[in-house]
Design brief:
415 residues, binds adenosine monophosphate, D-amino Acid Aminotransferase, Chain A, domain 1, single chain, Dna Ligase, domain 1, alpha+beta, binds glycine, Rossmann fold, globular
């Protein structure tokens, strides 16, 4: 079996790494991949939005299935393009991908299908939005479209609301993505990432994970793409998560959404119970780097079952224990940072796996090449031991300006 994975980050490295353990794999390709991924897959430098070139490559190389990592090609319609050419592809089509690419679409869907979520209003006019928040400025303001995780503003007072609305609707920082905003009731509580395989008829959940979005320990500082994750986390009970997934499945079936991929449900455990904050239509990053190391079932089988609508015949098996994944980032991230710093110590890693999020391989050396640079993941029987193990390995790695949170998964010890 030949599989192509699209993407180049730590998430795609983890997917390729897991696939490389499957006895069913003949060849794994990755577009564009990375220096680290090229050690286990053939990487080909094609623009991930050039669907014609990618599909030509797929046909020429007898690739049986394409797995799409990031949201952008999905929201731009890669699945529609591939399915028109009768090529097998893992991910939702463009209409279904609006569950991530439009907050207005997602919230409207949640409301229609009784998925618990914060109450909300939609605005396309700055003055009207400002007038609305002046009544209660403790709200969350979200740009409608994709904004690389930067389009959500949690506000406490009218100044913060006005700043957020100006940024989105007047300065148009996120372009078309800010034509509309969703203004939500502000909730509080612990968050969890509930991921599941979905073939349109059956949902098979993965173990729940928890991300750590802020740059500094104890959730201080600005939001990032995620500074670490652990799994499993048990803050949402199975009955509640099953109910959310069932409502989701009912919704996509009623709306006739073509959904064969991963659905990621971001949940906050508020006083009123679990509330859905967002959908993502793909694997989470860095959650995947904490989930896949615990997966016992063959990942290639699960991908095939999803695209062939046979998930009802599958159960997922997991290794016992916990996985903790810590992100090592460049100094300055999520603001400005430097790249090109040599990474030392990768050869000393013993009982962890290192997924590369932003590195390049040059002259037999790995250099930093992004904000998030590496994910170090370790498994152990108890969460406490997994934390100890992962940090013992993190401390072996060094590069100039290296930053990491020292409290990944600590909250899990008391959950
Ligand atoms: P989203 O992209 O919609 O998941 O929002 C990004 C982050 O903003 C979430 O992970 C939460 O930490 C926070 N957030 C989003 N919506 C709310 C809400 N209604 N109340 C409180 N915090 C929120
Ligand atoms: N971990 C957050 C995301 O993947 O969007």
């Amino acid at each position: 079996m030949n599989i192509l994975v699209i993407g180049s980050g730590g998430r795609e490295h983890a997917i390729v790494w897991k696939l490389s353990k499957s006895s069913k794999m003949k060849k794994i390709y990755c577009i564009p991949g990375s220096g680290a991924i090229s050690k286990i897959a053939e990487c080909v430098n094609i623009n991930i939005l050039d669907f014609e070139k990618i599909s030509d490559f797929v046909l020429k190389n007898n690739i049986d299935l394409t797995i799409v990592g990031p949201e952008l090609p999905l929201s731009e319609g890669i699945v529609d393009y591939f399915e028109n050419k009768k090529l097998k592809v893992f991910g939702p089509d463009k209409r279904a991908a609006q569950l991530e690419s439009s907050k207005v679409f997602a919230k409207t869907f949640m409301k229609k299908y009784n998925i618990p979520t914060a109450s909300f209003e939609i605005f396309d006019n700055f003055e009207k939005a400002l007038k609305y928040v002046s009544l209660n400025p403790a709200v969350v303001i979200k740009a409608d479209g994709l904004a690389a995780g930067k389009g959500v503003f949690v506000c406490d007072n009218i100044e913060e609301c006005e700043d957020a609305l100006k940024k989105i609707m007047v300065e148009k920082t996120f372009g078309e993505a800010g034509k509309k905003v969703v203004i939500e009731e502000k909730l509080s509580g612990a968050e969890a990432s509930l991921l599941a395989f979905c073939d349109g008829k059956t949902i098979v959940p993965l173990i729940p994970a928890q991300d750590h979005k802020r740059i500094n320990d104890y959730d201080k500082g600005p939001n990032t793409g995620g500074m670490g994750a652990f799994a499993p986390v048990n803050i949402v009970n199975k009955k509640d998560s099953d109910e959310i997934f069932n409502c989701f499945l009912g919704g996509i079936s009623k709306e006739k959404l073509n959904y064969k991929g991963i659905i990621y449900v971001g949940v906050m455990l508020s006083k009123k119970g679990p509330m859905v904050l967002e959908f993502n239509v793909r694997f989470g990053d860095p959650e995947t780097q904490a989930i896949l190391p615990l997966l016992k079932t063959d990942l290639a089988d699960l991908f095939y079952a999803t695209v062939n609508s046979e998930l009802n015949k599958h159960k997922i098996e997991w290794h016992q224990g916990y996985c903790v994944s810590v992100v090592l980032s460049s100094g300055g991230y999520p603001e400005k940072y430097e790249t090109g710093k040599e990474i030392f110590g990768l050869g000393d890693i013993k009982d962890a796996v290192v997924f590369h999020a932003g590195t390049k391989y040059e002259n037999n050396k790995f250099l930093t090449a992004g904000g998030r640079v590496l994910n170090v993941s370790s498994i152990d029987t108890t969460l406490k031991d997994a934390i100890e193990k992962v940090y013992n390995n993190v401390r072996k790695i060094k590069f100039e300006g290296m930053h990491y949170r020292k409290d990944i998964a600590i909250k899990g010890l008391s959950q």
